[in-house]
Amino acid sequence: MAGALWIDLLDPSRRELAKAMPGGLHDRALNRLLAPARHEDEPRPTLESHESYVFGIFLVAVAVPDEDRIFYQEIDLVVMGETVITVRKTPPDGTPFDPAPLHDACVPGPVRAGMLVYTLVDEVAERYLSLVDALDDEIDELEEKVEEMRAEVVRDRLSGLRHDLLHVRRTLTPTRDAIRHVIDGRIEIGGKRQFTSAVELHFADAYDKLLRASEALELARDLVAGVRDYHQSKIANDQNEVMKRLTAIASMLLVPTFIVGLYGQNFHHIPELSWGFGYWWAWGWIVATTIAQIVYFRRKRWI
User: Fold this and answer.
1) Are 223 and 210 in contact, with CB atoms under 8 Å apart?
2) Pick from 229, 252, 268: which residue ends a domain?
3) CATH number of the domain within which 172 lies
4) What pLDDT is recorded for position 219?
5) Could you give the number of structural domains in the chain?
6) How far apart are CA 272 and CA 178, in angstroms?
7) Are residues 220 and 244 both part of a single domain?
8) Which residue segment(s) compose the domain that 282 sits in?
């Protein structure tokens, strides 16, 4: 049995693409294949059938834990009968998609186009599962160090994680929906299904992985929200402790201020002013009231 013809292109020029690509491709699909990779989660992943071919776009989000960032690898796909053409694009801030799994699928012997496409989709699904695991590790690390890290660092990391989770969701959800089209038998060419029932069962396995990744991503969002709420409550508690200390200090200064103001009034008939020990009398009240407040606030654990 003859296998599929697989043509893999990396950042091809228009001439290279025209040489490898059979005729009949729509201008919109051709322009998408030639468009450069972008920084964010664009274009939208899809897998759709046309008159004589199947066109697909897949994005793989890759985490770089050491740099606390995520970049996106784009793989475009054209299937015409038993000819499979993949167009890989180098992202501006990362490396292109590694086609090693597709090479491994072709090593034992001839493989049909449907299984070759499934191998690509399954690898994309595995990458998303690995990505979610990496994000979970980042969240766990942040949760463990939230007590030690500065507040502005925690805020920046939480904001970055929420941003990353949102953009990963924007690529994972349409990828899952695109694979659902294969399972439902909606990928047709000339009124006939492009993929056999056996291949569609394999796609169901990839769909399950993408579904697990989606559920894990939602859990990761809940975990980030939990860390954010804990961090906010910690800040509120710290502010309460500061307010307690400031209140205690203000109270300790209030009574001496009252005593000084009382004896600092511009009246002649204040008995203590004529005493020989009047000065030490005022100091005694100041020291005594201050010590009493310190003892009280220490028992309350305000200072």
Assistant:
1) no
2) 229
3) 1.20.58.340
4) 94
5) 2
6) 92
7) no
8) 237-299
Query: How many Å apart are CA 5 and CA 204, to the nearest integer?
Result: 24
For residue 2, the model assigns a pLDDT of 62
Asked if residues 68 and 137 have their Cβ atoms less than 8 Å apart, the reply is no
In terms of C-beta density within 10 A (0-12 exposed, 13-18 middle, 19 or more buried), how is residue 94 classed?
middle
Instruction: Quote the pLDDT of residue 17.
Output: 86
User: Do 242 and 224 fall within a single domain?
Assistant: no
pLDDT block averages, 10 residues each, the chain of length 303: 81 86 76 76 84 90 87 92 90 89 76 89 94 92 87 88 91 94 84 84 94 94 91 85 85 86 78 78 88 86 76
Global pTM? Answer: 0.79
Here the tokens at position 283 are 């100091």
Give, for 193, the enclosing helix (H) or strand (E). strand 192-193
Residues 124 and 272 reside in one and the same domain: no
**Residue 243 and residue 189 share a domain:** no
Distance, CA of 288 to chain centre? 58
Task: Give the other-Cβ count within 10 Å of 141's Cβ.
Answer: 12
